[in-house]
Specification:
The structure holds two protein chains of two kinds.
Chain A: H1 2-38, H2 42-45, H3 58-65, H4 69-100, H5 106-118, H6 121-135, H7 143-146, H8 154-165, H9 169-177, H10 182-193, H11 195-211, H12 214-220, H13 229-239, H14 244-264, H15 266-277
Chain B: H1 2-29, H2 32-47, H3 50-60, H4 67-72, H5 83-112, H6 115-123, H7 128-157, H8 160-165, H9 178-188, H10 192-219
Helix pairs in contact in B: 1-5, 1-7, 2-5, 3-5, 5-7, 6-7, 7-10, 9-10
Classes of the chains: A mainly alpha, B mainly alpha.
Chain lengths: ~280, ~220
């Protein structure tokens, strides 16, 4: 009997860990092939062998010398950094008001924010595009991507509000009694208390901007000077049709920064992920 | 097209949830190191831009050079040629990108169940299945509802993978979904009004989903 339980436990352990290994392979293998292919020679890419015969690191410098790549890189950085900053500055006060003030139509306002969060960008893109290109004459630039973020972002507002709800109100009341204005409460008390939340929201927004493909495609496609990495990669793929090694090297360079940022900040990230759901 | 948009999104949702839930349970069963490695690699997949994920998978499934065809001995087979295999492949990439969210959220949800509750159930003579069905499932319901609806919303929004992998809707538009179609009509065919009309249809679809979402938030005591 004891023996039976022991064997069963071992079998169970093996089964569970086999599954875990399979799962890791499912996630990680594409990255491994991505890397291995990216350092192959042009000729070897066309053969089925998987391990690079000679490691051609120069593929990477070739990418950097590709006309446009540096510009796309710079544009992506501008979009991601300024977009994230503006989004935080504009979303935090809204989230604070929705979480902490009682006012008429608060429910309606919150509902509007949630409804906005659900809409696919394709739904509102047409009026937006007509506005930015015809009324403002800004298509072909990064402005139509960045400026809207200065007016709040629904997902960030929602996420920050979820965090703010968890703050004990005693602190805020104490500050109010001491004669602190709402803006000062927000900056001096709330912000230091929800630093992890702000980090999580900043990360989400940074990732969103860095990964955004649709926005740049709509607004910047006419002007290669304003392309971002995601969108530029598509044209790079088109131009290097059979050079999978170069395409893979470029792909790796596009995803490397986000993966790096992610690994350094994964704690804040997981907090953000769980908060959208679990906190509910 | 409405049908295939809904079927594709629904398929992605079901697969994402099933795989995500399975791995969430798996995470609770393995030791610390396998768990960390699994979480890292899953979140790596999640963090990768949709565009790059799609590119890598297209390479793995490439007609002549792809690893998958090599391994299966199906050189020259084009995965994007038929409608449903193409959808399935795009769906697999969507799932690859999106289920880490489900996995982490559910894992956190499972961890939040106090062990004393599970122990009490076991002392009362409940088996594994009964414990899962009668104790864990009801306790996870709020988390589950939100994960389900969040996935529905995300998978209806999928644009990049469909657009990039099927080169804008597949052969003769067989893999068009509503949002890709809206984009094409508006920006390639310059028929803004048709594009906008498609947008209205999508909005209606999502209003229904949103209504469910808000009800779910209410029921979990969120209170608007």
């Amino acid at each position: 009997m004891r023996h039976g339980v022991g064997t069963q436990r071992v079998l169970h352990w093996i089964a569970v860990h086999t599954l875990a290994v399979a799962a890791v392979l499912f996630f990680a293998l594409p990255f491994v092939f991505l890397f291995l292919t990216s350092v192959m020679t042009d000729r070897q890419t066309l053969t089925p062998s998987l391990w690079p015969h000679e490691w051609r690191w120069s593929n990477y410098s070739d990418i950097f010398n590709t006309p446009g790549f540096g510009t796309w890189w710079r544009n992506t950085l501008i979009y991601a950094v300024s977009g994230t900053t503006l989004c935080l500055i504009s979303s935090l006060p809204v989230a604070y008001a929705l979480a902490r003030f009682r006012f008429r139509f608060r429910g309606v306002a919150l509902m509007a924010v949630i409804a906005t969060m659900m809409l696919p960008p394709q739904v509102i893109i047409i009026p937006m595009y007509i506005f930015w290109s015809e009324d403002m004459g800004l298509s072909g630039t990064l402005w139509p991507l960045i400026i809207p973020l200065a007016f709040g972002d629904a997902f960030s507002i929602f996420l920050l509000r979820q965090f703010l709800l968890t703050l004990p109100s005693e602190y805020l009341d104490a500050a109010r009694v001491d004669g602190c204005g709402e803006l000062r409460i927000l900056l001096r008390i709330v912000v230091p208390m929800i630093k992890p939340a702000i980090a999580a929201v900043a990360l989400f927004q940074f990732f969103y901007c860095w990964n955004d493909y649709f926005g740049p495609q709509v607004y910047t496609s006419e002007n290669p000077e304003a392309w971002t990495l995601s969108y530029g990669l598509e044209s790079f793929k088109g131009a290097h049709h059979t050079n999978w090694n170069l395409t893979m090297a470029a792909t790796l360079l596009v995803m490397a920064p986000v993966i790096l940022v992610f690994f350094f900040a994964q704690k804040a990230f997981i907090e953000g992920v769980t908060l959208t759901g679990v906190k509910g | 097209m409405l049908t295939q948009t809904v079927v594709f999104a629904a398929g992605c949702v079901v697969a994402t949830l099933a795989v995500g839930a399975a791995f969430a349970v798996l995470l609770t069963r393995v030791g610390k190191w396998p768990r960390l490695i699994l979480m890292f690699s899953a979140l790596g997949a999640w963090a990768a831009p949709a565009m790059t994920g799609a590119t890598v998978w297209m390479f793995l499934f490439d007609t002549n050079l792809g690893l998958v065809n090599d391994v299966l001995g199906m050189d020259g087979h084009n995965w994007m040629y038929d409608k449903w295999p193409a959808f399935a492949l795009v769906g697999a990439v969507v799932v690859w990108h999106s289920f880490p969210f489900v996995m982490i959220t559910l894992y956190a949800g499972i961890q939040a169940i106090p062990t004393s509750v599970l122990e009490a159930a076991r002392l009362d003579g409940a088996g594994t299945w009964a414990t899962f069905r009668r104790v864990m499932l009801p306790m996870l319901r709020p988390v589950l509802t939100i994960v389900v609806i969040q996935s529905v919303i995300w998978d209806f929004k999928v644009f990049t993978q469909v657009y990039v992998m099927t080169a804008g809707g597949g052969i003769a538009g067989q893999n068009l979904t509503l949002n890709v179609y809206a984009y094409q009509q508006a920006f390639s065919a310059e028929d803004y009004s048709l594009g906008a009309a498609i947008g209205v249809v999508m909005t209606l679809l999502l209003v229904v989903v949103t209504a469910f979402y808000i009800r779910a938030l209410r029921r979990t005591g969120e209170g608007l």
